[in-house]
């Protein structure tokens, strides 16, 4: 992913007022939370946002597009918080553990699961929205972790040929056996202990595969082994 891909955050079109656009998004967010997506009409959204229906359509041509934009905003906000990684932090095990636990708690939160389900359904009719969600959601997260891993490879702490692949592998390992059942409607919420156990196993597997001892020989890694 290029820097341009990562930083495509502004969506205001020519002649649009960013403040008006945000006003509409704020109104829609409150309405969706109060009434649900299916019950809300574009007329309802316009009233909740305090704009005319004509103005609403200038900014968003459907409630599906509006919903996808709200999800995109939340994904970027969470990504900025969870994936704010210090490339100079050489305690790789601790960094991955903190990241993995925060990431899995976010993606398994009920509102996150519901949002992903809705976006997948919308993508059947509007594939571009699904692609956009993926680019500024999962792909952005992978990109930011890959940048951290690349710095650790340069520091001699990790040995990875393809950091983008390795970043994706770690994020998948961290939510293994946890997130997929929720997407398919499982009522069983993962406990905090279960999340921690799965993430700890992911960290161990990742560093056993990609870790380097200070002598350069791969080995099973404990946190102290990766302190600068």
Number of extended strands: 0
Topology-level CATH name of the largest domain: Tetracycline Repressor, domain 2
Radius of gyration: 20 Å
| Architecture per CATH nomenclature, i.e. the level-2 architecture of the largest domain | Orthogonal Bundle
Percent in strands: under 5%
Count of DSSP H/I helices: 12
Overall description:
This protein is mostly helical and 228 residues long. The protein has two domains: 13-61, Homeodomain-like (Arc Repressor Mutant, subunit A, Orthogonal Bundle), CATH 1.10.10; 71-226, Orthogonal Bundle (Tetracycline Repressor, domain 2), CATH 1.10.357. Helices cover 66% and strands 0% of the residues. The chain is built from twelve helices and no strands. The protein has helices spanning 3-6, 18-35, 42-49, 53-59, 63-82, 92-107, 110-125, 127-135, 138-154, 163-174, 179-183, 192-210. The longest helix is centred in the N-terminal third of the chain and has 20 residues, at 63-82. The radius of gyration is 20 Å and the shape is elongated. The two termini are 29 Å apart. Residues 1-10 and 214-222 have low confidence and may be disordered.
Write the SSE topology.
Layout: H1 3-6, H2 18-35, H3 42-49, H4 53-59, H5 63-82, H6 92-107, H7 110-125, H8 127-135, H9 138-154, H10 163-174, H11 179-183, H12 192-210
Helix pairs in contact: 2-3, 5-7, 5-8, 6-12, 7-8, 9-10, 10-12
Key features?
single chain, 228 residues, mainly alpha, Arc Repressor Mutant, subunit A, Tetracycline Repressor, domain 2, 66% helix, elongated
């Amino acid at each position: 992913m290029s820097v341009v891909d990562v930083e495509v955050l502004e969506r205001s079109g020519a002649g649009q007022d960013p403040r008006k656009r945000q006003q509409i998004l704020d109104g829609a967010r409150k309405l969706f939370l109060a009434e649900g997506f299916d019950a809300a009409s574009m007329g309802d959204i316009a009233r909740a946002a305090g704009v005319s229906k004509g103005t609403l359509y200038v900014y968003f041509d459907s409630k599906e597009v509006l919903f996808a934009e709200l999800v995109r905003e939340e994904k970027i906000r969470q990504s900025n918080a969870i994936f704010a990684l210090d490339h100079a932090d050489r305690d790789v095990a601790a960094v991955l553990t903190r990241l993995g636990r925060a990431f899995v708690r976010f993606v398994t939160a009920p509102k996150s699961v519901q949002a992903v389900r809705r976006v997948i359904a919308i993508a059947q009719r509007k594939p571009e929205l699904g692609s956009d969600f993926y680019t500024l959601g999962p792909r952005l997260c992978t990109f930011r972790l890959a940048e951290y891993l690349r710095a650790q490879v340069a520091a001699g702490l990790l040995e990875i040929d393809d950091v983008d692949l390795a970043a994706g592998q770690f994020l998948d390992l961290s939510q293994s056996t946890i997130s997929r059942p929720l997407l398919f409607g499982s009522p069983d919420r993962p406990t905090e202990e279960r999340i921690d156990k799965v993430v700890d196993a992911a960290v161990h597997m990742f560093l056993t595969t990609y870790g380097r001892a200070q002598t350069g020989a791969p080995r099973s890694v404990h946190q102290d082994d990766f302190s600068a």
